[in-house]
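for ur thesis appendix - Phospholipid carrier-dependent glycosyltransferase. copy paste whatever u need, i formatted it the way the template wanted (i think)
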Amino acid sequence: MALIGGALLRWTAVRAYPQGLWFTGDSYFYMGYALRPSPSRSKTLGYSFMLNLMEPLHSLKAVVVVQHLMGLAVAVMIYVLLVRARLPAWAAAIVALPVLYDAYQIELEHLLMSEALFTFLIMAGLTLLLWRRPVWWTALPAGVLLGGAVLVRSAGAPLIPVILLVLLLRGRPARLLPRLLPRARPDLPPVLAFGAAAAVPLVAYAMWFHSERGEYGLTTADGLYLWGRTANFADCAKMDPPPEERGLCLDAATKAQQDPPGHLIWRNDIPPRERFHSVTSSEANKTLRDFAVRAILAQPGDYLHAIGRGVQMAFSQHRAPHPTAGTERLYHFPDRPQLFPAGRSIGGGGTVLTDAMRYGGTDTPSRVVQPQADRMIGYQEKIFLPGPALGAVFAAGAVGLAAARWRRREVLLAWGTAATLLLFPIASADFDYRYVVPPMPFACLAVGLALSALRARRPEPVPAGAEPVESGPGPGDDEPSDPEGTGPGDAEPERGVSRWWENRGSRHRDSGRASAP
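the 3d part is after this line
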């Protein structure tokens, strides 16, 4: 029933805004590069690839329907994972409710933006890794999905090392001298498979980038974003930068304005735009990145304070007009059709309006249909996950990480993903409300996994002569994982050992299948 309700809400949004919603700047960018594919210096184009694949349909409605189906699929994956972890079905449904009913989640799915695809790919990859103890043939497609997510949004890049680290922690017990070496050793095949598979789409994209731009990379704009993150606190007197970078510090009047980085970097009067012909050129990118790193190393307290302000806004009760009031309004369902700028489209070849008309096969690429639009506007005013509640979900996941003794690595995988998705954009660019929505499903999943672990009890020692009775399940293969590194699926089927093998006080059985319940 919860899934049906979420689907009906999304269908109402489709009826209210049949051509989708446009995010000023980014939607035009993705559409322009979908119609004229070529590597961009400022963003990766995974979302444009999806738009390009759907172009023959000439239907903007089809795009938003697919994105809403992705949102529903994310909720279904959370539910299925938690039920498989033996959380009661009603509890699993409650955990998935924010994904199904949060109005800002639904609105973000309706925007012609990359977040729906980005979240779906990551959740699909994590589902493969959490379904059972990772083996190479599940880690392989999971790596491809996570690598593809990085191409959709480069903010997903730190997830690759984070997941690799968690996989390294999910080891098999040492086969030699298990008493002397009780700690787990890394189970390398799934680690190597995941890393190699994640690298495939990234290397392919970098080679395409090189063929067009003459250098290997995904983008050359990270320096500009990081400069914007540090510009408001960077003090050349404290940094002592080289002469060629000294002019990149803001003057006192501009710094006093404390313009948010997400708006500051687009101003024409900032030092990078006055100095460089293109702020995304290789030279500019290297110089701006070097300046920002110097600022962070010289003023780490100021940098952490800037990140803290972003996290505070994410968990605040009230939504701030950040980075601008106009940007924040784009995350609300509108009551009138959107207007398109008259300038040339991003990527060249026409105007923003002609691109939208050409792709959608329509003369009206933005429509508002009543009374459905008013219903969605009214719904969004009342039904959403407020900032303090999101903070509580993150806090509950952190507590669960400490308390979920038998499923700690699985909780860490979900909670670490959520924390990375929340913190990295703030640390590398700026806080934006659309960066808050993708981490939410993974934070909810972490809470659900922690709850399922708390329900699972470690089996008591089995008295001699008694048959063991199954206890609460653990992750993956539905058995409790061992805090010292053993985990589900570690029992060797060819030996047929008891599931209580190596539990203190249990009988050691060298042969015979594990006892049935």
